Amino acid sequence: LQGYASEMDNPNLVHLIPSALQNKKEILFGNLPEIYYFHNRIFLKEIENCIENPELLARCFLKRKEDLQIYEKYCQNKPRSEALWRQCGDSIFFQECQRKLDHKLSLDAYLLKPVQRITKYQLLLKEMLKCSKNSEGTAELEEALATMLDIIKSVNDSMHQIAITGYEGDVSELGKLLMQGSFNVWTDHKKGHNKVKDLARFKPMQRHLFLYTKMLLFCKKREENTDGHEKTASYSFKNSLKMSTVGITENVKGDNKKFEIWYNGREEVYIIQASSVELKNTWISEIRKVLT
């Protein structure tokens, strides 16, 4: 923040800033200032207070569960930030900032730190749990670990969610995103031609499902190469089912990884095959919760 973001306002360096970067500080850095202030003014002090009493550490995470959601915003902005960096990362302005800081690594390595940090907490809490079997504060550590895993899951889910394309409505109105993942899907429609029905039985479609409290979205995953860099996935919207009108059949004959979701008194039936029985059961229990 000091070596790069502040330097963008330095009158001596203004002429070096590439035009693609003009007025785009917020895109490049996301809400990094917010994350920095939270750690500097609040979280660090609270953790330092636990040096003498490490068993109190878990409470810091539980107390700050809401605050730690700021990482979600950072991660959601990350693809935009990376695209901008690819455009102008090799400019003289950044080279000059890096030289002044005497950093071996360029700015993009530091912009990755918050993403790495949010995934690191759960590892640290797991390590602490190993060292504190049945001692004071163990239950709270377990709760803190579950909290951090929850935050990582919602960050991960939201990263997929922002890549949905072609959905006419507003995704934010569908309620909480509970689960997302890829499945084999067969459809069976009562209406329509019998031939279609027969074909549908054999070849599954690959679909990425997003389960919200109000809606289940079926999307098709597309991998796109971005100018020679890592593939970015996007999910093109195919169809949706209102959760208030669906039914579920937990077991399908002949395959314990399959379940059915049907619509309108079995007028449309979707046979969904998970990659494992555990995954199927997790999805069924989430869907059950919504339905009840």
Automatic annotation (TrEMBL):
GO terms for cellular component: cytoplasm. Residues 170-292 form the PH domain. Residues 1-158 form the DH domain. GO terms for molecular function: guanyl-nucleotide exchange factor activity. Keywords: Guanine-nucleotide releasing factor, Phosphoprotein. SUPFAM superfamilies: DBL homology domain (DH-domain), PH domain-like. It holds the Pfam family RhoGEF. CDD domains: RhoGEF. The keyword Ribonucleoprotein does not apply. GO terms for biological process: intracellular signal transduction. This is MCF2L factor. It comes from Panurus biarmicus (Bearded tit). The gene is Mcf2l_0.
